[in-house]
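#struct-help
A.M.: can someone run this one for me? Single chain, 490 residues.
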Amino acid sequence: MTPQTLIMAVALLGGIGFFMGRHRALSSADHDPRLLHSRPHYYGGFVCLMTLVPAMLSLAIWVLVQPMVVSSLAGGLVSPQSIPNGSSLGLIMSDVVRMAQALTMAAAQGVIDMDALGDAGDAPAQMADILNAVGIAVGSDMTPDMVQSAMEMVRLTAIGDWAMTIVVGAIALIGFGYSMARMTKSFWARNAVERFILVTLISAAAIAILTTVGIVLSMVFETLRFFSLHEWADFFFGLEWAPNFRGDSALSILPLLWGTLYISVVALLVAVPIGLFSAIYLAEYAAKSTRGVAKPLLEVLAGIPTIVYGLFALITFGPLLKDIFGEGGVLGVGWMGDARSVATAGIVMGIMLIPFVSSLSDDIINAVPQSMRDGSYGLGATKSETVRQVVLPAALPGIVGAILLAASRAIGETMIVVLGAGAIARFAGNPLEALTTITTRIVSQLTGDGDFNSPETIVAFALGLTLFVLTLGLNIIALYIVRKYREQYE
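D.P.: on it. Structure tokens below:
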């Protein structure tokens, strides 16, 4: 039974349990709800939860663990001697998984006989025919070991699916029977259901926390592995970024950090004034009809995918800047040799960030109490003086938070800088020259067919951890500023 079918079966049993539990509780009270400890639907809800929750949790764990166990057992059939030079067991097992998928599809269509395939001496040739028939490709030459491993994976997966059905079904039935046995008028069903709800809320909070911890730990462990293969001093204090996969790479973060901060500063110089001024206008000066049209149109920018901004930077805005500042351009200064530059990516990114600054600042300014404005007007201040000396200082903590949120968004942006900033890691002060960023290099180092155990690949985790620390520092600064100014206006 597939997991989807099993989910539907367990959900059906839980639905039946709801009505049966409710009916049994009412029957124990002679169908008089006043004699029950809790309202009738709590009894049905308890049976439904006891049927669904343990079964679904066990199903989720099984679905996550089974592929790892199957892959480990099937991988033992691949002998180290059959792994070609330049490859690894991980790459071989990726092809084995594809072969197992092809076998499953072909068997479901009745195209092959698994036993005949295993007995044939030309199993790799037959497997190649099956792969072509189902449209699946593998990246390495097939060996008898790989075919045998794929067949074992299919067999173990089938056994695991049957075992999953039996175990999950048994857990659901046990929960159903246990909860039905407790359906008496004196059972505290409401308390039990509320405990379930409390545990669910705690679990949701724990998942968010544990996910963050898991992300950080994964980056930390891979970063430590990188520093065991490459000098940390070169990473933090070197001046050159030149990965070459020959063992003598220069992998310094400083040129990438310079490009990241440079492009982010240009983006903020565009986004903060425009976004903040538009927020002030919409919140304090615009008529309701104007605000009703301008604010939705401004927020449309936030819904545009970043890849579209990247294409706009690459195809339209970059060539426009080159036509102005490039050799033979309108100004004829020859400052720009390529359409990809800091200014191209920074200005387009700033346009993308305008809604973030504007919408958040607008909400924050509107949250300033009207009594503060009225008090300023009562003292004889004009509207502009009130905005400048009362409203903005009171809203400053939130505005700073909005700006730092935009800064974090700029630092972590990828697609715009990939298409608009170029891929040159260097120190340059001219905003019309091409640079690259940390996020761009992370993408470059983790794509392709590079060895995942080489420092040139796992340096991406060190870059990611550094980026995480950088954005965390921005958040700490924002929290400090918010707390400092909040004390003055509370």
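A.M.: thanks! The mean pLDDT is 83.
D.P.: also worth noting: Residues 189-229 form the longest helix (41 residues).
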